[in-house]
Write a structure and sequence with these properties.
By secondary structure, this protein is mainly α. It has one domain.
Length: 221
Amino acid sequence: MKALVDLFDGKILKYTFLPFILSILFWGVVFYFFSDNIYAFLEGYVSYIPFGESIKNFLATIGSGLVIFIFYYLAVISTLGVFSSFFIDHIVIRINEKHYNLTPKKPTFNDTLKGVLVSIKSFLIYFVIFIFTFFFLFIPVVNILYQLFMWSLLNKKPLVFDSSYLFANPDEIEKKYNSKIWALVFLTSIVYFIPIVSLFGYTFQLVFMTHFVLKKLKEEK
């Protein structure tokens, strides 16, 4: 319940919109200049993957404009963690001030840079796996579990780092609570199925993860 209430906190909302706007602008520029190249690559690539001919026919049916929009949308929500890394300490500190009163370390530029690198690394791993497996998107039922897994893979490490680095060693937190963290990230990834709301999905997950981490740290004191 605390996490749901915190989603509407004024300060948290402020630092939710900033990465969302940055992600929209960044990918807007990329797709504006390279949408034809992206679609041409996609159309050629699907010929070499399972169900390629069926996927190609499906893409032709819905039209290039809608296909580009879908991939633009996926790109935006997939990089929210990267852009959020620049503002994340404000959200985590706000939650701590309201509920846990733990003593955080002072965030540094190196911490921010490391958070960005963690997010970029996770995105690149996600992107490579997605390129070779996105045909699962076209298999009913399987596509739901596939997307939940992929979003979990994308966001798990950034969420752990962002929620804990001001108070503890993120690697130790991840190792100690790994199965519970996987479950939390997997379940909260359902938010990405909700239109519009999914654009704020990373903050949604971060609030829940921060409550989980800080509660565990509080109990250990």
